[in-house]
Amino acid sequence: MNNPQYRQRAIQAREELTDDYFILWIWDEAWGAAVRPGQFFEIRALASLEDAQVAGHIPKLFKPISIYDNQGGRIGFMIKNVGKGTNALSKLRAGDMLELLGPAGNGFPVYRGKHALLISGGIGYPPMWYLQKELINHNQVYWMHGGATQGDTFPCDEIFTEDGSIGKKGRVCDGLKENIAKYDIDIVYSCGPLPMLAAATAITQELAIEHYASLEAYMACGIGVCYGCVIPVGSALNWDYLRVCKEGPVFKAEEVRWELI
Amino acid sequence: MNNPQYRQRAIQAREELTDDYFILWIWDEAWGAAVRPGQFFEIRALASLEDAQVAGHIPKLFKPISIYDNQGGRIGFMIKNVGKGTNALSKLRAGDMLELLGPAGNGFPVYRGKHALLISGGIGYPPMWYLQKELINHNQVYWMHGGATQGDTFPCDEIFTEDGSIGKKGRVCDGLKENIAKYDIDIVYSCGPLPMLAAATAITQELAIEHYASLEAYMACGIGVCYGCVIPVGSALNWDYLRVCKEGPVFKAEEVRWELI
Amino acid sequence: MGTHLSEIFSQSLTAREQLKTKLGVLELNTPLTVASGTFDLENLEFFDPSCLGAFVCKTITKEPQKGNPQPRLYETEAGLLNSIGLQNPGLDLFIAEKLPKYREVLEMPLIVSFSGSSIDEFAEILMRLEACSGISGYEVNISCPNVENEGIAFGISEEIVYKLVQRLSSMTERELCIKLSPNVTDIAAIAQAAEAAGASSIALINTLYGMAIDYQTGVSRIKKGIAGYSGIGIKPTALALTYKTAQAVKIPILAMGGIYSWQDALEFIWAGASAIAIGTANFVNPLSAFEIIMGLGEYLLARNLKLQDIKGGVTI
Amino acid sequence: MGTHLSEIFSQSLTAREQLKTKLGVLELNTPLTVASGTFDLENLEFFDPSCLGAFVCKTITKEPQKGNPQPRLYETEAGLLNSIGLQNPGLDLFIAEKLPKYREVLEMPLIVSFSGSSIDEFAEILMRLEACSGISGYEVNISCPNVENEGIAFGISEEIVYKLVQRLSSMTERELCIKLSPNVTDIAAIAQAAEAAGASSIALINTLYGMAIDYQTGVSRIKKGIAGYSGIGIKPTALALTYKTAQAVKIPILAMGGIYSWQDALEFIWAGASAIAIGTANFVNPLSAFEIIMGLGEYLLARNLKLQDIKGGVTI
Ligand SMILES: Cc1cc2nc3c(=O)[nH]c(=O)nc-3n(C[C@H](O)[C@H](O)[C@H](O)COP(=O)(O)OP(=O)(O)OC[C@H]3O[C@@H](n4cnc5c(N)ncnc54)[C@H](O)[C@@H]3O)c2cc1C
Ligand SMILES: Cc1cc2nc3c(=O)[nH]c(=O)nc-3n(C[C@H](O)[C@H](O)[C@H](O)COP(=O)(O)OP(=O)(O)OC[C@H]3O[C@@H](n4cnc5c(N)ncnc54)[C@H](O)[C@@H]3O)c2cc1C
Ligand SMILES: Cc1cc2nc3c(=O)[nH]c(=O)nc-3n(C[C@H](O)[C@H](O)[C@H](O)COP(=O)(O)O)c2cc1C
Ligand SMILES: Cc1cc2nc3c(=O)[nH]c(=O)nc-3n(C[C@H](O)[C@H](O)[C@H](O)COP(=O)(O)O)c2cc1C
Ligand code: FES
Ligand code: FES
């Protein structure tokens, strides 16, 4: 695996989605050839230290954002504005500069000839888009996505919303067991909030289905150096804190010690 | 004297001057009726605490800026961009909002029937413009201004530059003694860098001429609360630290303990 | 927040009820006070004074203090350095001139901050102030050199703090708040010493050590070199020390250190503060007190909570 | 700065000469190092490694450490809270796996940071490391609880620091740098104890106490509550403590705490640092090391100065 690189890239295009969601596109052929679904970049609006000295604007951490799409180097980041860092990103327009560190993380394992179920919640959607594109030619793929409300939903096979504003009312895991049976699923990929991932894991473990979950954690370095982004992985009696940015973000779901998070 | 008030005012116009100098105009009739030459405002580009929380932009101190002109409430601030705070001000355009605390300070004493000499250096120019407008109808006024180079000079009776790029080459105090004699001066008003003020005081003291100097100091509150902006004032044996923002910025020049600054 | 102001005002009686707090023997209408040395009557022009639950004046000493040479101030990336050197007119002038004005203008409790260079001097000042009406309590500033102890600050030694507070607490029924320095190994132990000796509340934190140098010339930005560091950059440290102290003592805590917004204020209340003070925020935003009290009121109203419900309720 | 880079590069040999410094027994090509726990081989992808005068690895302990529960990080207005809990693979794995990699990749001196829970344990680790080649020195992290002393951190007691350093200094000829915690009453006294006991340099500061709370829910942003505070918000304090310590000891100082830019670096050198380390800056700007060394080089070249000419030259 390559070590993450640092680059500055212009935003080539910006797309508006629902509510607080938007997509930033950059162009980098070398990265386009190297990256895999489930990997992410640490990104930030180009910050200058001059700003810190001149205007009291203090440079902040990069934010981990999954690769949403890769079209031979036209790389997209689908982002939801939820706080300081993503808000700064939400201010950017085509032509503005991004700083990027990556590609980071391990990515999803990709097989052929499987019946794959993708399950995403909220901002867990973006890496699944890239993943399904990678899977679709040689696997059967069924994609369930859930969100709080209509604005948190995007194209897929089956939608759940907590308020019932679109799709089925409820949580996305509500339909998981049924769909695993219905579509004869033999592999599950998941990305979303921790409780959703934990709930999905309970089901896949019960059914003994292979399951890869992509996890989130607050990050500082994004490159495996600070040990800030860890989650407990291993068996109940023998686990270690592994780095989401390095050994993850994708883990075998049954190896994550959800009860300790 | 009124206590300083806090107000937000739109910038009504912006004027570009030489190099890093510019003028911001606001409109406030009540202040227009109340203020006097030599007083100043603590001003700042409207800052929001949301910025601090959302974008890591930390709100900074206000900056003391003299009243440059007052046309019945059309109040002008002539500013030189020298650092963090003035740089933030230099970014403002007509329509942007200013925060103002003031009027602050005592201002220059204004008499009638005098031969007044105004002497200013660099960014000591602005309060003198307002002062000469106040003096001109009932006094003889002669105004000397000095700067490092041509870009630091503005309309007045006699100009000095250190590099000789315009006017006389040298420091503005070089011509002081001669002009005091030539124009039969009985009162001197000064504003500029400390060394200039100290040099001017040496001369006026020798000649026993009444002299009011406007001083600068780093400020935090601007309203007399923090005791951060003091300079030593009194006799050589019995002096106290007085606040530039409250007891000043104008002091009797011979009472300032220049040797202690 | 703007849209909700009128709502708050119309419900102000309720909001007031929810904002009430106790600081030792004092009942405060709001938990908001001001940090010694950063606020005076001039500031009351900027907002409705009833935002404040109490007024803390600048530290006074027995004799007048000239204070430190210039420059005394420097703004850093995330805060302020100051080196005022306790400039003040001294106790006599305070009693003769300042105090009557405070009595005339202030409708909230007045807490007088004072400092001394020996235990006797602290006691003497307290005795003189006890004879004055219009004072609700004292904030004892112990971040100052002790002439009886090699000029080492009072605030760093548990034994000396104990002795000092014991002496003072025996002399007054008024609120006796001891203001601690953060520049110590164990602030909680010092707070415990003050509590054991009869303090009725603890204020913290005073400024951290701080310094800045002009990188081009090597000249210290502050004439005296090391200065006091305040403002938003010290907030994480102030909050940690507030929490640590709240775990160690039962008397109420008046917390401060980088509180700029009502969100900051809430953090300190969750950590265990009964009241909070704003210092440097008064300089960077003259409306801070108003905005903080509005924000707190709105937060509590929206959740139908009292301040007491969240005080010290942090989940670790 | 951009326009001058080529100029610097063309004069790089001279610049190098001017940037040379000594840290105890070590000769460093540049005064720039990295703060333990914030930098590893991954970072060397981002800039020319020869920017660094030395490489300091993350603190290791005798046994593997699991570290603290999540969340371990939170970014504040002006810095970073961390609570990693010294997660590391332990001495055996370090020697077996990490060290050979460092030896293979690093062209600059390697300084190994380590920590223990008793003086014996510190000594045991040092003995094991002494047997390994490719190590130029040690940074001894004493901000950790001492099991022999009620779990109170080693770094707060002059006597214990003296004993610990005396033991270690008798065992090695390599650089022995003692890294101090700022959370003490008198950091200079502790530095003096380390010096008297044979330390060849002092590193400071480790993180300040810090905390943050979610104002809406009251949940600590860091699982363990009080965390370590680093970054630009602690710069004024780090600079003050650097100056204080430089006045008190003769051995060189490796300074750190909020150094983000070359201007910041210069402030610490004026205050008395022989070398500086960047920590949190590595996260907020992966090119910091490069930009700092370029800025320092340009500054010195423009004035025809050597680092030694300004070291400790602050005007107060
Ligand atoms: C490997 C990885 C891939 C990611 N991919 C994407 C992506 O493709 N698109 C995208 O929009 N986001 C993605 N995220 C999440 C994104 O990194 C966070 O939303 C972002 O870091 C939040 O930072 P902030 O400064 O905007 O918000 P903050 O100011 O830090 O937080 C704002 C609010 O959001 C909450 N919050 C903060 N972080 C998270 C989190 N990780 N999960 C849930 N709530 C949180 C906080 O508690 C707070 O209330 C990814 C995260 C990881 C670890
Ligand atoms: C009563 C009063 C009236 C003033 N009137 C005006 C005015 O009408 N127009 C105007 O442009 N300025 C005026 N000034 C000066 C102005 O306030 C300062 O230039 C400003 O505060 C600098 O802040 P900054 O954040 O921009 O610079 P900083 O970042 O604080 O400093 C930038 C550089 O300027 C130097 N510097 C800082 N303050 C001063 C100072 N006071 N004098 C000289 N050098 C300094 C610093 O050493 C530094 O090198 C006045 C000052 C006072 C006290
Ligand atoms: C300019 C200034 C003057 C101060 N003067 C005093 C003082 O006289 N007595 C005192 O106890 N604290 C004094 N302090 C400390 C503050 O009261 C407060 O403890 C500290 O600034 C931290 O709060 P903040 O970050 O909100 O400013 C002063 C602080 C500043 C900035
Ligand atoms: C994520 C993180 C991990 C750290 N780990 C260590 C460590 O293992 N050992 C140590 O001595 N210091 C450690 N530190 C402290 C730094 O080495 C440094 O002393 C401190 O962060 C101040 O410098 P800075 O403000 O430049 O980051 C760590 C700091 C951070 C932010
Ligand atoms: S974010 Fe630093 S190790 Fe993962
Ligand atoms: S700036 Fe605060 S007293 Fe003058």
Can you list the strand order of the major beta sheet of chain C?
3-14-13-10-9-8-7-4
CATH class (first level) name of the largest domain in chain A: Alpha Beta
In total, the number of domains of chain A comes to: 2
Shape of chain A: globular
Mind explaining what this structure looks like?
The complex is a heterotetramer, with 2 copies of chain A (261 residues) and 2 copies of chain C (316 residues). Chain A has 6 helices and 17 strands. With 261 residues, chain A is of the alpha/beta class. In chain A, the strands form 4 sheets. Chain A has a 7-stranded mixed β-sheet with strand order 12-11-10-9-13-14-17, sandwiched between helices. Chain A has a 4-stranded antiparallel β-sheet with strand order 1-8-4-5. A 4-stranded antiparallel β-sheet of chain A has the order 2-3-7-6. In chain A, a hairpin with a 2-residue loop joins strand 6 and strand 7. Chain A is globular and about 55 Å long. With 316 residues, chain C is of the alpha/beta class. Chain C has one domain: TIM Barrel. Helix content of chain C is 35%, strand content 16%. In chain C, the strands form 3 sheets. Chain C has an 8-stranded parallel β-sheet with strand order 3-14-13-10-9-8-7-4. Chain C has a 4-stranded antiparallel β-sheet with strand order 5-6-12-11, with no helix packed on it. In chain C, strand 8 (137-141), helix 5 (158-169) and strand 9 (175-179) form a beta-alpha-beta unit. Chain C is globular, with a radius of gyration of 19 Å. Chains in contact: A-B, A-C, A-D, B-C, B-D, C-D. Chains C and D meet through strand 11, helix 7 and helix 8 of C and strand 11, helix 7 and helix 8 of D. One flavin-adenine dinucleotide (FAD) binds at residues 40, 63-66, 68, 78-80, 82-87, 123, 126, 216-217, 244, 249 of chain B.
